[in-house]
Automatic annotation (TrEMBL):
GO terms for molecular function: heme binding; iron ion binding; monooxygenase activity; oxidoreductase activity, acting on paired donors, with incorporation or reduction of molecular oxygen. It holds the Pfam family p450. InterPro entries: Cyt_P450, Cyt_P450_E_grp-I, Cyt_P450_sf. This is Flavonoid 3'-monooxygenase. It comes from the Eukaryota. Belongs to the cytochrome P450 family. Its cofactor is heme. The keyword Nucleotide-binding does not apply. Keywords: Heme, Iron, Metal-binding, Monooxygenase, Oxidoreductase, Signal.
Amino acid sequence: MVLATFISALLLAALASKIVRHWLMRKSLSSHMTNGLPPGPPRWPIVGNLLQLGQLPHRDLASFCEKYGPLVYLKLGNIDAITTNDPKIIHEILVSQDDVFASRPQTLAAVHLAYGCGDVALAPLGPHWKRMRRICMEHLLTTKRLESFSKHRSEEAQHLVKDVLGRAQGGRPINLREVLGAFSMNNVTRMLLGKQYFGSKSSGPQEAMEFMHITHELFWLLGVIYLGDYLPMWRWFDPYGCEKKMREVEKRVDDFHSKIIEEHRKAREYKVRREESDGDMDFVDVLLSLPGEDGKEHMDDVEIKALIQDMIAAATDTSAVTNEWAMAEVIKHPHILQKVQQELDSVVGPNRMVLESDLPHLNYLRCVVRETFRMHPAGPFLIPHESLRATTINGYHIPAKTRVFINTHGPVSYTHLDVYKRQVQFLLDLLKNVWVFDYLCHGPFVCYR
């Protein structure tokens, strides 16, 4: 009797679930047709499509694109969202309608970890963002400024080669991620902060490890799809302590940046007392010398910290991971490795180091790097965009304040063994096609906004 009741309850529950699901699908389809929205999966009340995203949301969103089409509409809690991995639609969003999708959503991670969205990468479009971007382009990322650090980059490249050679001659295994991570980190910190964190002239292993640990935690938290951004009630509970972790990392990052700025201020005061010239200025020195907003004598510390953080986040872990993937791919494809070596012998020769001036002439190597960016993007999504006003894409209505997830995990990212070899040759044939390169290398090479 009890077993029969239990089975009946299960059957009733299954039937009820099927009816509710069928109703939701019809309601979702009717809503899409009525509002002219792009197609998408059925939505649940309140949570929308959040329950359909697992621990690997980029794969879930890629599967939606395969099922519903190149442009998919989602309701994430109370937020409208679209996702795509189609090159034509990505071009429409990032280029044709750049003025519509030029802003960023104010996520909790951006608020806590980017100084209240006061940086360049995560700030919404507005006067503050334009001012910060102008500072970067006119004072930090100029050709003259970057060329002034070419000596540092050359020194770091020589240290890398000597380190790898020494380990190989001693029969010691080489951890590529560790070696390339130290190389990327030193290049960036010497330009930004005027110091090494790894190597014989480094600041010390303890400070280096602290710096790396903070950077990795920052990356992880900025990449999390936090439910509190879509369901405000979730923040009351925060069962996994995600927002608490953000506040902890926020304090540690701020303390680290405050220490850097204070060190530079003391160094500047010491030079003034001794009437010494500034000499080689790193990025922090440059920022400390600039006037602030509204007639202030200097930039606010918060603005300087936000820009430092952007530069570190953009150029450390991403570069090391991409270099590691490139090495893995050419090792898996000896024929490509041989062609790269032949090009290096032809352009550079066997008796000297590769110089930055050689890079424009290394076409095959450049194609290998760009194909690596395409096959192994540094992150599964580009930084989310947000529509400033309602618009139309492919005939579908896109509401204002819609969040845009451009998924790099999809048809443009192949995993078949022979594809890498074919695509390198394909890129070599299309070397003059700027848009193909811009799209396939949308990560580090193009900064759409």
